[in-house]
Structure formats: C-alpha cells, structure tokens
Amino acid sequence: MNVRAHISMLFHLDKCIGCHTCSVACKNLWTDRKGAEYMWWNNVETRPGTGYPTQWENQDHYQGGWKRMKNGLQLRIHSRTKGILKLFFNPALPDLEDYYDPFTFRYEDLFNSPAGDDQPTAIPISMITEKPIDIETGPNWDDDLGGSTIYAENDPNLKDVPQEVREQLGELERLVFNYLPRICNHCLNPSCVAACPSEAIYKRGEDGVVLVNENKCRAWRMCVAACPYKKVYYNWSSGKSEKCILCFPRLESGQAPACAHSCVGRIRYMGVLLYDADRIPDAADVDDENLVAAQREIILNPFDPEVIAAAKANGIDDGWIESAQNSPAYKFVKEWELALPLRPEFRTMVMMYYIPPLSPVVSVIEKDLVKLDLSEEMHDFEVFHRLEAARLPTEYLASLFSGGNVEIIRKVLRKMLAVRVYMRRKSVEGEVDQVALDALEKAELTEAEAEAIYKLTTIPTLDERFVLPPYHREMSIEAEGMDPLAHKGETGVGYLQVPMRGE
Amino acid sequence: MSWNTLLFMIFPYVATVVAVVVTVYRSIYRPFTVSSLSSQLLERKKLYWGSVSFHYGVVIILLMHLLALLFPKGLQLWNAVPIRLYLLEFSGLALGIWSLVGLVVLVWRRISDARVRTVTTSMDVIVLLLLLVSMISGVLTATTYRFGSTWFTAVFSPYLWSLIVLQPQPELVAPLPWIIQLHALNYFILLFVFPFSRLVHIITLPLGYLIRPWQVVIWVREARARAD
Ligand code: SF4
After folding, report:
1. What are phi and psi of A11, to 5 degrees?
2. Domains of chain A
3. B175-199: burial string, b at 16+ Cβ within 10 Å, e else
C-alpha cells in the first residue's frame, strides 16, 4: 500500500444555478491576460449541450485520454515515437475556432466619436488582431439551451438515450437541463503529463495538483490535445501551455480556490482523499461499467489504523490525516457513494467529483398547459419508483458520470430522493411514516446517514464545505532557501523573472 | 585584413562563441523564453503544408551536410559509382526544393494571416529572411555548380575542419563562386542569430520522452529533505 493524499473538489450539481460567478472569479484572478483571453480554466456548461471547447468529449476527434490495449493502457494521442515525429504539426490540437475568437468592444468609440446624427456604437473587435470581427460564437453560446437544435442535440452523451426520449428532450414543454461547472480534474493518471515530450507537466506528490512548469514548456502542445477534458490551454502570446492550478497559492494559505470560494450556489466542497497509488494502473484498466467501483476501491478509509500507519510511513502528517477524516469529499465519494467522476471512461482517474442532479418533478400537458399530474406529496415517490421516467434520462447521466453504468446512477438518485422524502416527512410534516422509512431502506440508507447527507447538502457552514489541510508553506519556502518571514502574508514568492515571450 | 579573413575566419568564431554562450545563458537563466512559439492554434492549414515539409526537409539536409563533414572519405567512395552520385544529388535537390516550398508557404502565412501577423516579431522576420537566403542559395548552388556532394568534401570539409581544429584556412573558400560563399556566410549569420531568436528551440528536441516514465510526480518534501 502506497498511501498518498489528494486534494479534491466536489460539485453538487443540484445546487448549481449557472451564474458563472466561478468562471468570472477565476478569469479575474488568473486569465485576464494577453494570450489567455480565450481560456476558461473554470467554465460552466449547460447540458445537454456541446460544451466548451465544442464537443470536447468527442475523442475520435480530439484524441484525449487513454485507451485500453492488450498490453495495458496507451495514450490515445500518440506512442512515444509518434509523439516526437509529430512535433512540427500536432494534428489533434483544437483550433481557435473550437473555442472562440476572444472579443471585446471598442468602447472608446462611445466617447471619442465626433458629434453626428447617429448614436455611436461600440463595435466588436478581436482581442487577438484588434480588428473588427463578427462574433459568431463564444465560450457559453448555448447557455440555458440557447440554440438547442444545434448544441443540445449534438451532446455526445445522448447516444445511449432511446430515440423517442431524445425527441422528447427537444420538445419545448419537456426541455430539461442542468449546469456542469468544470475545472481541471487533477487526475491520478493524467494523460497531459504522459503526453508532454518535454516533461514540463507534473503532479505534486503532496496534494496531487497538476501543474505546468512553464520554464520547461516548449510549446509542443501535446498536453492540450491529450487532456480529454480540454483543460490545458495554449497561450498564443507567451508560447506556453497553461492550466487550472487549483489556486494552489490560496490552498497553501488556507483558502479555498477562487471558484469554490466565490460559488453563489455553494455547490462546491473541498477535502482530502487518501488513496493507494500502487493500485492506479489496475483501477484504470477495467471495463467501463466497473470504473467507478474500481476508483472508489483505491480511495482509502482514513479511520483504518492500517491506512493511518501506512500514511504516516509515507510522510503524511497528522494534520493531513485529520483533515482526511473530516473531509466532505470522503463522505460523499466513499461513505455515501453519492459523488461520481466525470466521464470515467477516459481513464485518467479524475479527482474532482460530481453529485448528479435530480430531475424536475414529472408533469403532463393538459390543455396546452404544463400541469403536474400528481398530488404534491407524491412527486418524489413517482420518480423514486419510476427512475426510468425521470426527465433527465438515467442513460444520459450514466454516460456523463458512470461509464454507462445506469445502475450506479439509479442508486445515487434513489438515495437523494429518499433523503428528500425522509426529511420532508420529518421537517415539514413532523412525523416520519413507514413510507419514508421504506424509501430509506430501499436506498440502503440509515436514518442517521440521511440526516447527515441532508445537513452537508443543505446547511453546511463554510468550514464544513472546505476542510483544507495544513500545508506548512513556511517549510516549503525554507526548502527553497528563502526566508518565510520575508514572504509572510503573500501568495507565492513573487516573480523570479517577469514572463516574457521568447524571441 | 581582407574580407575573406573577416567573414570566414573571425566571424565564424565570433558567431560560434556567441551562439554557445548566449544559448547556455538563456537556457539556464531565462528558460521561460525558450519555446518553439507555435502558432498552430491561430492558423492550421497553411502551417501543416509549410511546417511539415520545411522541418523534415531541413532536418534531413542538415544531417547530410553533417555526414559530408564527418565522413568525407565515405561520401567520395559512395559517389564513385555514378548512379549512386545521381541518386544522392537528385534526392538532395528534391529535399532542398521541398523544404524551400515549405518555407515559402510559411513566409506567405506570416504575411497573409492577420492572426499570425500579430504574433510575428521583427526577429521572426529576420530569421525567415535568413532562412530564405540560405535555402535559395543552397538550391541555386546545387543546380548551377553541380555535384556538390563531391566537391563539398574537397573544399568545405577541409575548410570547416580547419576551423574546428583552430587552424583556420579561410583562403580555401576565397576562390569559390559568390553564391556558394553567400551560402556559407549565411550559415554563420544564422548561427549568430540562433541564440537571440526562436531558433533556440532546436536544442530542446525532447528525445528524453522516448524513455522517461509516463507519469511525473514531484515532491516538495524531497526538496525540503535536500535542504535540511
Ligand atoms: S458559481 Fe457556483 S452556482 Fe454559480 S455557476 Fe459556478 S458552480 Fe454554479
């Protein structure tokens, strides 16, 4: 057993309101720079939809992630030799058109135009060429199902959804969508790291954050293509690749990443997970439908004395172990089995997890009006016993979160619905009846668990949402031969050199 | 001091020293600036036709030059049979033209594409012009003064070796036609420009990728342990 610690983020999708505060916080902090305008280290997609960059999940096109071969996992993008041979042109690299031409408006014109008969307008210009452009698309063009016939219909996750359900999804009265915020997944088996010819990308051993060493990056851009989530971006101005850094300077000073901290829906949780690094290769090399189980399997119980001993032997200190024991990530991922990895079949073993969304309650159309055909107290039961009729098809969620294994999704939804039924009985109706207890039993939950899930889902405090481990940053600064006191209260240790585009 | 001494004796040494010193300095102290500065994200189609033919053509041609320098005897033996000589000359010329075409596409791309223009520095223009001179003079030499693969070993190999062993004999190049002298001089200019331009990316050819483990994990605590 080779115990390592990992910092992990959870996204409770039921709570996401699609406000993009997270994206804006991230943009303001990290990517409001030349060459990075088009990058959204954090983005929020409306699903069904094609996402950003367009159809990022389509690996026939983008060649991201790993594939299973007879002799184990292989990068989909290239073998080692082919990687070198393709240095001069990288066929799998997305075009700027797959993202969008970053734009702004010539606001000065509003002030500087000469007096005339017409109101001056601020025309759109490209942030690359600074020439006027026609804006054709943006990072969020299909927000709230805008242009569904172009975007939602082409969501790769709809492929296993029965045809008649697909058609219904397009009907105005039955439209259904959820938001999917995405950042770098800081994977256990990252394909960006494996694809980099210059060895510039690495995983931090202590907390698992995946970073690009820009001093080593030579702009071969294999990482951009190899990341199946398209979360490494190429800065066209500095000539270096960049990605989400999980706000490590914030983490190291005890604050949650900006996206999580600013989240209006409070959908995000952060915590430590302990895992067995020796079992990564095996866990990533199982059938699609067993991937979630295999991944849960290598996440270790931080209360198990054996695990604690092995963790200590591996240099994980008490503070981190305690943090792992209080981790909301451990509870949601392992104890309650509610949180799932995004598209696990890319086999990079993501360490950011999603609690899938529930559907809106079932309704029928009556005299052209959308009307509920059930009495209110029956809503949850209706879905509880007929998950196959859920408005957000379980096949669709299974494609997103469980490698196509519908049973996993059903289990999760059943648990969440059972908690809802139970808590409504308890807090609104004042009495827990047999029906609610039966629902709990069917969902394999105890009353105490239901209560705990409810609490952590709906009324957690900031400290319960973000259980951050002690980083002992002062020691790292010392290790670099610098004086920690000189950098007290700062994030980072300043510029070693101001980054400048190479000649 | 004659032009010949200045351009073919002093300048080559200056260029080499500058190339080595500045490249080492830049790799150690300014590693952020070392990059291939790809612009594929901004423009893809022309890059494909330009970059692939230019790079592969140039790499093979440079290797051929190197072989001629290292094994002049072997080359002469090979060329002793006419059919082999023709084969070599023909493939050399074909490669030259192939990469020249690639280069022209790249120049055209720099000029015609607005996005690529915005990331073009004056040094990029200088490098492209120098490369154009180099390839055009090379192709012209190959067509007008035939069988370079043979006379190279008689003229250039001794000259370059005289530079390498620090007993320079610049007079060896003096009688050559101007186009060939230009080709040689341009090489030294490129060498001089090398460390100040995007050309440095050549030394970063990542051959380590062939053998390194797939995953890279770095421990802060190892750095800490080393510091203790
Ligand atoms: S800030 Fe939170 S609620 Fe708003 S879009 Fe981002 S993840 Fe969703």
Report:
1. -120, 115
2. 3-252 (no CATH), 356-463 (1.10.3650.10)
3. ebeeebbbbbbbbbbbbbbbbbbbb
Exposure of A109 in the CB half-sphere (CA atoms within 13 A): 13
Query: Would you say the pTM of this structure is higher than 0.90?
Result: yes
pLDDT (tens digit per residue) in A115-133: 889 889 999 999 999 999 9
Residues A189, B34: C-beta atoms closer than 8 Å = no
> What's the CA-to-centroid distance between A358 and ligand 1, angstroms?
17
- B123-150 pLDDT per residue, tens: 999 999 999 999 999 999 888 887 777 7
Residue A357 CB–ligand 1 contact under 6 Å? no
Q: Please, what is the Cα angle at A467 between A464 and A469, to 5 degrees?
A: 160
Give Cα A75 to chain centroid, integer Å: 21
3-state helix, strand and coil shares in percent for chain A, rounded to the nearest 5: 40, 15, 45
CA A226 → CA A71, A159, B42, B176, B182, distances in Å?
Answer: 20, 23, 19, 51, 44
Please give the full DSSP string across A194-236, using - where no structure is assigned: HH-TT--EEEETTT--EEE-TTT--S--HHHHH-TT--EEEET
Closest Cα partner for A7 from A316, A227, A460? Answer: A316
B227 chain-A contacts, CB cut-off 8 A: 478-481
Contact B37 A203 (CB under 8 A): no
Tokens describing residue A329: 């990530």
C-alpha B7/C-alpha A502 separation (Å) is: 29
Residue A49 CB partners (closer than 8 Å, separation 6+): A142, A145, A151, A152, A155, A177
Instruction: Name the residue with tokens 């695990």.
Output: A307
The answer to whether A161 and A406 have CB atoms below 8 angstroms apart is no
CB spacing of A503 vs B32 below 8 angstroms: no
- Verify whether ligand 1 is closer than 6 Å to residue A144 (CB atom): no
A132 prior amide bond cis, ω within 30 = no
Distance A267 CA to ligand 1 centre (A): 7
Rounded to a whole number of angstroms, the distance between the first and last alpha carbons of chain B is 59
Closest CA to A81 of B59, B214, B60, B209: B209
Set out the domains of chain B in order of their start, with CATH numbers.
Answer: 3-227 (1.20.950.20)
Q: What is the pLDDT of residues A147-178, one digit of tens each?
A: 777 888 889 998 888 888 888 777 776 778 89
CB A384 within 8 A of CB A417: yes
Q: Closest by alpha carbon to A349, among A185, A193, A223?
A: A185
Q: Can you tell me the distance from the alpha carbon of A258 to that of A268, in angstroms, rounded to the nearest whole number?
A: 11
The minimal CB distance from B119 to the residues A84, A193, A236 is found for A236
Among residues A491, A235, A485, A288, the alpha carbon closest in space to that of A399 is found at A288
- φ, ψ for residue A114, nearest 5 deg: -65, 155
Specify the pLDDT at position A375.
60
Residue B219 to residue A237, Cβ atoms within 8 A: no
Dist. CA A125–CA B121, nearest whole Å: 22
